[in-house]
Structures are given as C-alpha cells and as structure tokens.
Amino acid sequence: MKKSSNSFLQSLRLSNGLATAIAILFHAIGLAGMLWGNAKYFASLSSLNLLLVFILILLTQQEKNSSFFVFMTAAILIGFGVEVIGVHTGWLFGKYHYTSQLGYAVFNVPLIIGVNWFIVTYCSGISIKAFQDKLTSKFPEASLESNKKIKLLSVVLDGALLAVLFDWLMEPVAVKLGYWLWEGDIPFYNYFCWFVISSLLLWIFEKSRFEKRNKFAVHLLLIQSMFFLLLRTFL
Fold first, then answer.
1. How far apart are CA 2 and CA 69, in angstroms?
2. Is-contact 83 113, C-beta < 8 A?
3. Which end of the chain is more exposed for a tag (fewer CB within 10 A), N or C?
4. Average pLDDT of span 50-79
5. Sign of torsion, CA 130 134 137 140?
6. pLDDT tens digits for 92-134?
C-alpha cells in the first residue's frame, strides 16, 4: 500500500515550462491589479497565490520521498513557530503584527506564512545548488564535490543570504499592501533573524536526502523577486 501511495505521488508531475508559464501569468495579473487596479483586493488574494506556487513546487519536485516531506513539514512548522514567537514576544524579528490580508490565522499568524517560509528557503536552496552545478560544469577543477563541508556551507550561508535579499525586496511592499505592520521602521534585527532561521532551514534542506534539481524553483525565485522589485519601485 505504501509503495502504491509513493508511486501515485511520483506520478503527480508538471513540466517546468508549464509551471513557469502559470506562475508568470498569475504574478503578472497580480502585478497589474496592484499597480493599476484595486491594490487592496488583489493583495487579499496573495494567500491563494502562495498556495498555487506551493502546489506547483510539489508538482515539479522530481523526487517526493519521505525526506522531502520531512524537510517541507519542518520548514512550515518552524517558520510558523518563529512567527508566533515573534508576534507575541518581539524577541524575533522585532515588533510587528499581521493583519487579516493573508487569510486565516492561528495565534495571530496567518497559516500561509509557514508555507511561505518553505517556499523561500526551498527556492533559495535549489537556486544555490543550481549555481554550484553550473560552476562545476564550467570549472571542473573548482568542483565542490571533493569538499562536502564547503558545499554545505555554501548552500546554508549563500542560500540564507539569498533568502534575506528576497525578504529585503518584499518587506516594504508587504507593509504598503497591509500584510503586516511594524511598530516604527523595519529593523535590521528582522534581517538578522531571517538569516539565522533561514540558515537552520537550509541546513535541514541540505542534510535531507531528496533530488534537489528543480528549474521551476529557480524560475519562481526570479519571478517573485521581479514581482516585488517592480512593486517596490512603482507602488
């Protein structure tokens, strides 16, 4: 029965090209709606967009084994947990609170936020792995395969920096759209916490044994980064 269930999960596949086209379409609609339509209404649909890209990641992930789901679950639960701590104590990220824009919340934190932590760290980790593969193919003598510690540190630290850069692009836009609100300016401490927590999640990502090649994840990170960059510039 377990083998049959795994086979069914593996059969749920979507091509990288089609998934990328779907992501571009929905982000383009959201961008147009926020810039030239009803920004508040389109912002309220963001949780559905995050759920869509989450499903697209699952459909494009080649190897959906137990290790992949362990990482996914850990990222969602840890991401949600640190947000609960942050919102209620101010010990993490700074003093902020969520609004109702991102949908149903538990302990004053939207459930979709845990999913967002998974999406950001997964896409960041996959992107760094793709860069390592490119580096190895162009410069075989600089291959990281011979030094697993350097490879691990690269995924964890470079991936965390990538996640922090994405958060830096997103934060002012999120505040303008009313996803969450800060007491005062966005603190540097927020980005420090993002780096530390992302490093932990990316360590789990690198230690988990599943296929870590997914072109759609790289494309998604670029699409979402461009989305927030354009909103940050023109909204």
1. 15
2. yes
3. N
4. 97
5. negative
6. 999 999 999 999 999 999 999 999 999 999 999 999 999 988 8
Mean pLDDT calculated for residue range 172-194? 96
- Cβ-count burial 112-127 (b if 16+ within 10 Å, e if not): bbbbbbbbbbbbbbbb
Q: What total number of domains does the chain contain?
A: 1
Type of residue numbered 39: A
- Per this entry, what is the length of the chain? 235
Q: Which residue segment(s) compose the domain that 100 sits in?
A: 2-234
Three-state SS at 196: helix
In the numeric block, which tokens belong to residue 117? 């932590």
User: Token digits for 23?
Assistant: 């992501």
Which residue in the block uniquely carries the two structure tokens 């571009």? 24
Closest by CA position to 174, among listed 224, 115, 220 = 224
The pLDDT value given to residue 8: 56
pLDDT of residue 151: 85
Cα 5 to its chain centre, rounded Å, is 27
Q: What are the backbone dihedrals phi and psi of residue 98, each rounded to the nearest 5 degrees, phi first?
A: -85, 155
